[in-house]
Amino acid sequence: MENPSVHWNQFDRYYYQKRLVFHMGWNEIDLDHYLIESAPFGGLIALLRDDQKIINIKNIKTNKNCIFIYTCSGKLISELDYGHKQRVKAFGWTLDEKLIIVYDDCEIVVFDIFGEKIKTKCITSRDSTVHLVYKAKVWNNGVVILTKKNRLFIVENLSQPRFEEYSVPENLGIVSDLEILQPKFSLTGHTEVFVSNLAKNLFIIDNDQTLEIEFQEMITHLKVSPTGRLLAYYTETGNLHVISTDFRSHFLEFQMNSKIKPKQIAWCSSDTVLLNFEKKNTLLMVAPSQSFLKYEYDEPLYLMTEEDGIRIFTNSCCEFLSKVPEVVVNIFGIGSTSFSSLLYDASQSYEKESSKGDEVIRSKMDQLPKAITDCITASSWVFRRDLQKKLLNAAAIGKSYLDNFVHDIFADMCKDLRVLNEVRGWEIGMPLTYRQFEKIGIDLLIERLINRKHHYVALKICEYLRIRKDRVLVRWACQKVKSENETDEQILKSIISKLGKEENVSFASIASVAYSESKNDLAIKLLDYEKSASEQVPLLINMKNPGLALVKAIECANPDLIYLVLLYLLNNEDINENSLFQILSNKDMAINLLIKYCKYKKKDLLYKLYFQLKRDPKVVGLLKITESLSDKINLEMKLKIRNESLIAFGVSKNNFLKKITEDNIKLVKLQQDYQQRLELVFIGLSINQTTAKLLELDLEKEAKKMKKTFKIPNDRYWWIKLRALAKRHRWKKLYTWAKNEKSPIGYDPFVEICIKNRVGNEALNYIPLVKDPYNQVKFYLRLNKFEQAANIAIKEKNQNLLQHVKSLAPKNLNIPSHI
Amino acid sequence: MALNLSETQVLDNIQILLEDIQNEFVKICNLVKGDIALILDPELSLPLSLCVDPPLLKKCRVTKLYELKDQDFQTTITKLFFYLKPRLEMMSLVADYIRSQEKVSSSCEIFIVFVPRRSMICEKELEKLGVLGAASLIEFQMDLLPLDGDILTLPNLSFTRELIDNDTSQLLNIAKSLIKFQVFFGKFQTIDWIGEYSGIVSDILQKTITSSFSKKMENSKVDQLIIFDRRVDLLSPLVTQLTYEGLIDEIHGLQNGNVLLNPEVLGQRGNKKIRIPLNSTDPIYSLIRDKNMSTMGEFLKRTIKNIAEKYGSRTSAKTLGELKDFVKMLPPLQKKHHSLGTHLSIYQDLVRITGGGSVLKKRIEIELGMLADGEKHFDYLKELIYREEDINIVLRLLCIQSIVIGGLKNKQFDFFRREIVHTYGFEHVVTLTNLEKLGLLKKKEGGNTFNSLRKNLKLFDDNFFKTNDISLVHSGYAPLSIRLIQKLFDNKNGWKSIDDLIKNNLGTNYGSIELVPKEKKSQNSKIQNFTKKLCLVFFIGGVTYAEISALRILSQRENSNVEFIIATTNMLNGNQLIRTSFPEKEK
């Protein structure tokens, strides 16, 4: 077995290895004829025919409006039809392998890999002018677009509806290249856009400012490193520079002294920069130390940067170029004396049943744990299964010498490698390195497998790693539903047999696929298995079964779901008011919510609702009255609405409400009259207040008219008049009134009001008229008239009362102590 | 203001509810960098102050606070957070504001934060108004928050208007808050519910509990949940509260556990009202809050004597050790001393207002007469109206009158309604019908259901001083609500023993659910035998301070083995209940 180190190249103090990953499975593909984008982390590659290249017709596969999607092993996944109308200006991948396409009219569409549209978004400004794309760039879930009129639009996250426009400097001119710094890398937390132009400027644009830098020569290529820390740029005279993305440090200047433009420049991890000089059949790797390494190729290339290396595609194969990590060098490096290397060798000698290994291991027991972990780590880096096995074996042997070694990392690595080896095979063709796998995580890996319809593998991995598998099952079921060679019964049976006992399965999402495939019966049957109402209701609405949807929504008392059905009912032209009322009848919770909604949004329906569903015209009248109380409407309107309410009260035979409303209308009319005549505010006052105001103005006659019109009881009238006169301090008038007419409310209130207004002498007028002698005494005492108080007590022959008075009176007053 | 309840909480770690919500708030603020402006739904200002205090705001870089009202305001701060109740009518205001702000600065980051949860109907409205793209929508789950050591509120949900409108849209939020409570404190073992709304909430809880609860929640700290629908007993809030705490609420109004007093009440000068926090961390207050006003004087005197004696022990202290003991005692003593001073002033002021010959005293006598024997006081009621007394007071008493005599005769009914509308204004036509809707005011039809309730549930007990009965909270009237709850503990068969009373006289329904299988429960109860059982009582539609006092009295009875935590949508008193029935004027 050859030592892996024979494939290493020493370069810039490190070793680099260029490893053949796959021989491409495709036939007659010439990369030179295509625009190519690959998804990161060993993802799919998409090929779009480059219509600027003239090709021999024979070499073109099928029609031209399609993008070919291949695995890294060159296995065709699909021919994605991107539509005939528009031109594709840019495309790229999301992490879970959805294809984002930017068309020339600023439409952005996200496709799944089998060509189904998942999302469409169009960038239009408020004035709805159509913009034409000049250059666009796609990353992850974001898109940046520079239009032909130099407007710059950014969508940071396609799953949200927001997009931003950055203001562009006027002197931008013609752009040579455009690159973005993702928001997660930028200091501001917003996307930064780097734009170079023919006038030798570089602009750094973000959401609120633009920085402009002048250069000696024009920049032709811009490339940000995968960590977002470094920017490589290439100039027209053949200079390669590397600077930091905050423009503070300069790391590299490398002169090619050649005017040949590289076809592509790309980062290998964040360590070195690769220049693809296809015309010279050369791929050049440049390190920060200015050293370089030359690879020769005689075919076109496409480079795809990864966080820990770079994938190189040619017509015939896929390679992976990366730095060899130190742990690996320590083990396999020629002449390495590290203990991990010794442990590895020792394990080999074990195989040969030699005892030499044992001595070696026992010689340095203290370094053994690290050596074991190194072997495990190294196994994660190598792709060859035989080497993985040997390294893990070495670790296992080392482990047997230790009692307390934590077994988990060993076991986990075995599991992870098993999963990785599965997806690295030609069939799935996803050459994930261990570091990439750590980065994307198992969830995303499973998602990718499902997207590629590898349900079985995904399910087995879930079971093997003991993680939730409902997602896989549901997606499988969604596929199953589409099956055309099986009957609905068969489909249902096979779905239930696999998913029936699983927890957390969303049957609604399966049912929804069934519905979109026009298998309504199947959909309803599937929906019966759904436990969550919030999943059932929207689908039932979609399936035009609002009655059942409403029942389900009410069952869980969820106002959002109820509203969802109600809005559907209100906005659907096929549903007239009669059928609306029919669906709603006896569903009080829904009716009350609809009433609440109508109060703000649909007043006309509100009244109908009450008439039809509540059968309570009285309420309609009251609603009208409430409406008429609003400060927003004028008096005329108020009267009009109140008159309308009279009809409702009439229908409901509610005489009291009818009478009291009529009274009010009468009152308002009177008030209007007073207001005009007296130029004082009356509107808004109650009947009492109006009467009081008239009395305060000495308009006794008018007040009497009020009394008569509104049948004010005599005693209430007296109270009103009493307060009105007191308020105006008309004490004389008050006294005459009290003397001439007999008060129906007694005279206590007269006394009280005088005391309250601090006119004690006036109060004395009324105390003799007070009926209850106790109250008389009480009043006298409050006015400090002790003799009078005593007299009453004597008159009443009440000894206790007299004592009480005496006890309060000053000593110098001669109050008798006995009757 | 956030409370420190560590010493007084009934349930360990109740503070965690507050901390959780505060963390949530910090998380939301950390969505952006730089200075933040908060724009609040006016109805949220007060609730928010329960969990978000100025230091927290500062920590979260909130530099400006606005209320979202009709008027326009503009700010140079570009990170804007709108905190909104999901009220449809607010959406157009928000939309207007966002549009005007966009004109000023295009680089604004705008978040619309729904409290406590997002609402589809509001989002649809925002979409229609065309601002959905400009703002991000999130939610701030401000659920149950401690108001005191044994009181939790849902501060953003005032659930009184809903009682009139039959609006059930908040019931799900109530259920969700109780689910969250269980995440922290474990599953309830039983639920007892009474009233229609309680039934709905209990239903939702039962469904969720059976479907998705983690193992961790098996370990329940709260044994029982009682859900009480306010509509079962709307009478009790109308009755004047006569505990110390209740009376402060009646006269001065308690807000978030604070009272604002005129300085002269405390014997101080100035115009600015003084804020006094009233809760269980105040050593004197926690002793006197539940006491009937008439026994307070005696109690305060004793406490003064006690403190004076303790101060006196200084002179008798001879050895160094005794002196040391005295010094150790000083800080809590001074705290008590200070608190005692405050409460003496408040008490004296209350005595002045409620004392002999006062209007209030007369009114309370009349009220108790009605409740005790169904006395009729039409002339008194008429005079109140003719004197143009506060309409809240008139309506409270009129409603009590109507309930205790089983409705007003046709003629009286029309007479009082007419006099009220003529005196206080036409809009009260609506108020009166709302009170009718709530069943507080009605025309006489059929028999008097209150009589049998009073008899069977002993709603009136003059002997409360001797028996330490809950009726002391209203000087004789025992709140119906708490009597019903008491039945659950006093009678083995609970509400079943008064099935007919609940179904026919109260006209409502009830139910009981066992959530933990019997075998398991007996295991648990073995361990718990030594400690009191913990019971959460949730009032949908509010609870009065007097009712809370009554529950505290229940748990302090000699043979009681239960301790209560009270949760409520909002605190309630008679005036607030009456005011909710006023017409909602469109502005």
TrEMBL record, chain A:
Pfam families per UniProt: Vps16_C, Vps16_N
Domain of life: Eukaryota
Boundaries of every Vps16 N-terminal domain copy: 4-410
Chain ranges of the Vps16 C-terminal domain: 505-810
Gene3D superfamilies given in the database record: Vps16, C-terminal region, YVTN repeat-like/Quinoprotein amine dehydrogenase
Family: Belongs to the VPS16 family.
Annotated protein name in UniProt: Vacuolar protein sorting vps16
Lineage: Eukaryota, Metamonada, Anaeramoebidae, Anaeramoeba
TrEMBL record, chain B:
Alphabetical list of SUPFAM superfamilies matching this protein: Sec1/munc18-like (SM) proteins
Domain of life: Eukaryota
Gene3D superfamilies: 1.25.40.850, 3.40.50.1910, 3.40.50.2060, Syntaxin Binding Protein 1, Chain A, domain 2
InterPro entries: Sec-1-like_dom1 (IPR043154), Sec-1-like_dom3a (IPR043127), Sec1-like (IPR001619), Sec1-like_dom2 (IPR027482), Sec1-like_sf (IPR036045), VPS33_dom3b (IPR043155)
Record GO biological process: vesicle-mediated transport
Matching Pfam families: Sec1 (PF00995)
Family: Belongs to the STXBP/unc-18/SEC1 family.
Official protein name in the record: Vacuolar protein sorting-associated protein 33a
Native species: Anaeramoeba flamelloides
